[in-house]
Amino acid sequence: MSRSLATRAATRAAAAFFALALTAPLAQPLAAQASIVGTEPDKSPYQSIVDPTRVGGFGGLLFVTDNGPGVTPKSPIPIVGIRYDYHITGPTYFNASLASGHTTRTILDYNKSAATRNIGEKNTWLMALDVGFDLAPTGDRSWKGIQPLTHLGAGYVFTPGDTREDASGYTFGGKFSVSMGFGVRWVTGKNREFRADLGWRLWKMTYPGTYQSTVSDPIAIMPTGSLDSWTANRMLTVGYTWGVFR
User: Fold this and answer.
1) Which of 93, 97, 119, 216 is 20 to 30 Å from 48 by CA-CA measure?
2) pTM of the entire structure?
3) How far apart are the first and last CA of the chain?
4) CATH code of the region 51-244
5) Cis link prior to 76 (omega < 30° from 0)?
6) Integer Cα distance of 157 and 197 in angstroms
7) Each residue of 166-195: pLDDT tens digit?
8) Is the pLDDT of residue 80 over 80?
9) Are 159 and 175 in contact (CB under 8 A)?
């Protein structure tokens, strides 16, 4: 091999070596970046929530809708309650709650004139039992510690100790209810969280036939309208729960 050919070969080999030496440090971070898909777990705003079972308490206000005669429990009613939550799978949670609050209701006597038929107030307790399911749009994960929820359930609303009919034959009694609403969980730690909920309890109000009687006054307690109608009653609560059986 001639000297010129050997020189050219050596020059090419040296150039290749220096090119490799210069590009190798740049290739390592590029390869590391290529191995990352999406966001690194420790930097992701989404975090998994491990909470198979939770129990807790809450407080808030229940706004009872009055659809006519003014004998429903007075609102807003301050309420307190307890709740139980169980993570079934993925975005689905089972829950049960019991809320209670003290209030009063007006008693009307259809045997009296319109000006005198209001014969007073009665103290009563309103209790609401609910069982249902929550669905989380983010699944079993939170976004920066926040997990939005939607709720659908069914329950029973009643006034214990206030089951006797009044002078007009009316009592609030017990009512089947349907519940729906929205909630937000703020996960503050492994075993605890804050929660806020805005929901509606739908139940059917039923009034006695005496409310349309004109025996004592040409103006009945309910001159028009149906004696049976559904009402939407808003409930706003905030609470705190703990994780158990982990």
Assistant:
1) 97
2) 0.78
3) 78
4) 2.40.160.20
5) yes
6) 18
7) 888 999 989 999 999 999 999 877 678 999
8) yes
9) no
Backbone angles phi, psi at 31, to 5 degrees: -65, -40
Q: Which residues pair with 230 in a beta bridge?
A: 204
- Longest CA span, the chain: 132
What is the torsional sign of CA 138, 141, 144, 149?
Answer: positive
- Kindly report the average pLDDT of the chain as a whole number: 83
Contact 157, 177 (CB under 8 A): yes
Residue with tokens 């009034």: 207
At residue 187, the pLDDT reads 84
b/e sequence 107-123, b meaning 16+ C-beta within 10 Å: bbbbeeeeeebeeeebe
Winning range, highest mean pLDDT, from 19-33, 39-53, 54-68: 54-68
Using CA atoms, how far apart are residues 246 and 241, in angstroms rounded to an integer?
A: 14
DSSP string for residues in 160-207: TT--S--TTS----EEEEEEEEEEEEEEEETTEEEEEEEEEEEEEEE-
Kind of pairing between the strands at 92-108 and 141-143: unpaired
Confidence of residue 236 (pLDDT cuts 50, 70, 90): very high
Per-residue pLDDT band for 12 (boundaries 50, 70, 90) equals low
Rounded-to-integer distance, Cα 206 and Cα 200, Å: 19
Note the pLDDT of residue 246.
62
Nearest-CA neighbor of 183 among 209, 229, 148? 148
